[in-house]
Amino acid sequence: MDNAESRDMKTANRRERQAALEEADNSIGVCGWILVLFSILLTLVTLPISIWMCIKIVKEYERAIIFRLGRILKGGAKGPGLFFILPCTDSFINVDMRTITFDIPPQEVLTKDSVTVSVDGVVYYRVQNATLAVANITNADAATRLLAQTTLRNVLGTKNLSEILSDREEIAHSMQSTLDDATDDWGIKVERVEIKDVKLPLQLQRAMAAEAEATREARAKVIAAEGEMNASRALKEASMVIAESPSALQLRYLQTLNTIAAEKNSTIIFPLPIDMMQAFVGPRA
């Protein structure tokens, strides 16, 4: 609810600013109206030649902001399609309303745990209000690019290295919200922010690789020890089964011979019956 109320307040404030900017016709003064009437009269006298100077066309993805004697014409942005201007008193600026993409140059950032990393990203934005984009900022594109670089530094400066490597989506969402709030007065809507790459210093990469290798070796030793323990338990249970059935040892002996013969080696094996070895074995307790 708080986010919805905040967006509604921002929308209302933006509309108020736009309405204030469009109150131009009522304040051009007497001299301004005289110049406008003279421009209209001149246009009518020079017809049909002047008609080519009065008719302008903007494309589907463009909007035109008309200035009459330096003031924004009431009604806001014009277009798409045909619109008319007065050749002597009016001028206009075309504003592209399509989504614009730019790369954030790699930024050297000191993280919260004092690690220097190089991070770059990409930002998608579009002009939502052509009037504010022209009247409130000199160069909306350049301002958004610089603000994106600063925001990237500020957001990553509050994160640890592990958070930067694992929580890229959260960082991108935080940057998008911050940029969108900051560029709202410029009539710009930041649609998406993505973190492209995180580059670590070479020494840190080696240290992390050594740490990961040591962790894997320790895990491998633990797994091998667990395997030996399980194997010893299995052998103990097998020995108990063989002790209960004397013929089981002979069957196991024959299975071992079958396994050795399948390897196609040159070893000659002379099997001896187990009964012949009983004479050398003392009586059981």
UniProtKB/TrEMBL annotation:
Q: Name one Pfam family in it.
A: Band_7
Tell me which GO cellular component terms the UniProt record holds.
plasma membrane
Keyword hit for Chloroplast: no
The main location is: membrane
* Coiled-coil stretches: none
Could you name the domain of life of the organism this protein comes from? Eukaryota
Q: Where in the cell is it found?
A: Membrane
PROSITE patterns for the chain: BAND_7 (PS01270)
Write out the transmembrane intervals: 33-55
Identify the residues that the record assigns to the Band domain, covering every copy.
53-212
Q: Which UniProt keywords apply?
A: Membrane, Transmembrane, Transmembrane helix
Q: Which InterPro entries match?
A: Band-7_stomatin-like, Band_7, Band_7/SPFH_dom_sf, Band_7/stomatin-like_CS, Stomatin_HflK_fam
Assigned protein family: Belongs to the band 7/mec-2 family.
Q: Which PANTHER family match?
A: BAND 7 PROTEIN-RELATED, STOMATIN
What's the protein here called? Stomatin
According to its UniProt entry, this protein's organism is: Lepisosteus oculatus
